């Protein structure tokens, strides 16, 4: 089947990586990448079209090129990446509305793949340990990206009602992490001293950046399966993550966490949102049974491996214990083994 | 393996060491000076003498140790080694005491006698390991020097692009390993007075700390941290369970060896310590050492520290998805259906079961087709006898109740000490749900019936245990 795929948000890190990944698929004849700024990285054999998904121009691109598959990745997670919260929300919500309006009119359209986030489940002490796709948030995300994604998902459901002939796959990704990507989470765990909520240890789930592209490609080539959670296997807690990143952490009483978060954000150190603090406090896990059973996708990295691949990249590890590749660490390891050897000889049976 | 090369040389030395037990000390000195010095330098951060003594001791010990893979699978080896009581060390280090130290010398000979058959191959292996250890140590020394420019500013920095930071982490890690060795030697010195497993325990604690600092532990989907539970939570609670409450467990055989099951228990004691004590009692008494995965109210997970502790020790939110997920994973799940009504009931209503929620636990067990095990806890009611309830204060704090006990808040923090009542935990025979089929959960009448049956069983067991109890405190 000759396919023409349109990717929104192609100039962003994950969009570009996905375009490159999709270029390797022979089933896909044409790839059109859309974004407001030109990409600073390679986008494979994708053709870049400079357009704003918030403008009705997008409708012409879709119809003129006989696009049959749209991959919507233009939902922006961090305010700074888009020039402030207001413009972030506009790109996320208005952009999705315009894109879906264009899709609705496009006769050629058969498939829609949307990159969403597990942030739509929110994070609260009333949460079940693992969210399945059909569960709804016990406490809706208060703002920022999570809230935008809830709205985006709402528009996608509306679109699904109006165009039942279009197969829709919506992937809810856990926090994306990896050696190259920069997100609020990576900023946070790159701090020299990581503030964590006192008396809480949120369960975190990550998905590796490479797995994002793989999952989207699988979703595009498979039949539509509706909403699917995508996350690496296993869980790490917030303090464990700080330890794996080799950073000391500072426990801050819950009352102060908002202030600290605000300070960090204003200082430009971390692009964080109140949602992130709630996540670190109460944590969140998503069930990935459907990912395996229906989507047939198997992530290459577990949550821990994904986080370690990020941690290995961290520089100035004053307190680094996670990566075993550094010469200093290898030396320490050798010393430890030697001591262990002595140690072992100390007892007999 | 590069270590194999120098093996032969030291093998020769070792074989001499093995021949006569009396020469052990000297042989040890002969083989270990390099290591001794190395060890001293390696642990620049702490306890150099301890490591040195350990190294010194090691040379001699190795001569009569059975062959253990030293470097490969060191973790396993360490664990194995930890289990073995180290008795001989003190005898050797304090030769004056050697004669009166009765148990040490004989066991020594017995071990040697046993190992006599295939001594030669073992010797070889031992020697290899020892030289490898020495080589590794020397390497370590070099590298430790290199990575701590603050201590040896003249050391050359490697030309590789990576930054060789002072390596606090590495030093800390090495220090912890060294501490492990030190603790062993200290432990062995103290073992004569304080019992042998002190040494093992000290080593365990340091190994645990190292794992924690490195983030090297696994947390399951529910946030259950087995490492933390076994090494921190349980040791803290065990004295409370064994010495203070002197918990007696009856009917532990009613808990299946494997597979999912639902333990339903009464709830009491103002502070819900009956749940954690039950969990520990099952872990300690059950032959398969099963963990009770507790289901808690959302309020628990809202509270700082408490919620974190609960999650780490295996608790999760009491909701159907979580309960069914746990049970279908074959876990032993614990539920206290009375909830806060049970914990926060006044003292005069002790051992009177409150309403059992909406029977959600029964339908969850039916859907997962696991047996229900009624559990009756006697003794927890008297821990903090609640004689009053400051309802206004409770409302202000958003708590379900604000208890007044004879000692709290009268004696301040002292009032938090629980009364040492004698506890009896009895598990009744399991109630089968699998034979009812999955659809049975959709039949409210059946669910209510089963809920009542379980409640009645617990209530009757409570009464019968109370009848047999001699007194509250004995």
What features would you describe in this structure?
The complex is a heterodimer of chains A (349) and B (474). Chain A has helices spanning 13-23, 57-64, 79-82, 85-105, 144-162, 184-190, 209-221, 238-244, 254-266, 274-282, 289-295, 303-311, 327-345, and strands spanning 3-8, 28-35, 47-50, 69-72, 111-117, 167-173, 175-177, 194-197, 203-204, 206-208, 226-230, 236-237, 249-252. With 349 residues, chain A is of the alpha/beta class. Chain A has a domain at 3-179 and 205-232 and 285-299: Rossmann fold (3-Layer(aba) Sandwich). With 474 residues, chain B is α/β, with parallel strands linked by helices. Chain B has two domains: 2-98 and 126-147 and 167-214, no CATH class; 226-383 and 418-468, Glycerol-3-phosphate (1)-acyltransferase. Chain B is 52% helix and 7% strand. In chain B, the strands form two sheets. In chain B, strands 1-9-6-2-5-3-4 form a seven-stranded mixed β-sheet, with helices on both faces. In chain B, strands 7-8 form a two-stranded antiparallel sheet. Chain B is globular, with a radius of gyration of 29 Å. The N and C termini of chain B lie far apart (63 Å). The model of chain B is unreliable at 1-48 and 58-166 (pLDDT under 50). At the A-B interface, strand 12, helix 8 and helix 13 of A face helix 3, helix 4, helix 5, helix 8 and helix 9 of B. Chain A: It comes from Marihabitans asiaticum. Chain A: Residues 5-231 form the NAD-dependent epimerase/dehydratase domain. Chain A: Pfam families: Epimerase.
Largest sheet of chain B: 7 strands, mixed
Class derived from helix and strand content of chain A:
alpha/beta
CATH topology of the largest domain in chain B: Glycerol-3-phosphate (1)-acyltransferase
Poorly predicted runs of 5 or more residues of chain B: 1-48, 58-166
Oligomer type: heterodimer
Work out the largest interface and the residue count of each chain.
Answer: A-B, 60 and 98 residues
End-to-end distance of chain A, in Å?
69 Å
CATH topology heading of the domain at 3-179 and 205-232 and 285-299 in chain A: Rossmann fold
Global Rg of chain A: 22 Å
In DSSP terms, counting alpha (H) and pi (I) runs of 4 or more, how many helices of chain A? Answer: 13
- Report strand order across the widest sheet of chain A: 3-2-1-4-5-6-11
What's the architecture of the largest domain in chain B in CATH terms?
Answer: 3-Layer(aba) Sandwich
In the CATH scheme, the class of the largest domain in chain B would be: Alpha Beta
Radius of gyration of chain B: 29 Å
Using the coordinates above, name the CATH class of the domain at 3-179 and 205-232 and 285-299 in chain A.
Alpha Beta
Order of helices and strands of chain B: HHHHHHHHHHHEEHEHHEHEHHEEHEEH
Structural class, from secondary structure content of chain B?
A: alpha/beta
Average pLDDT rating of chain B: 72
Number of strand segments of chain A? 13
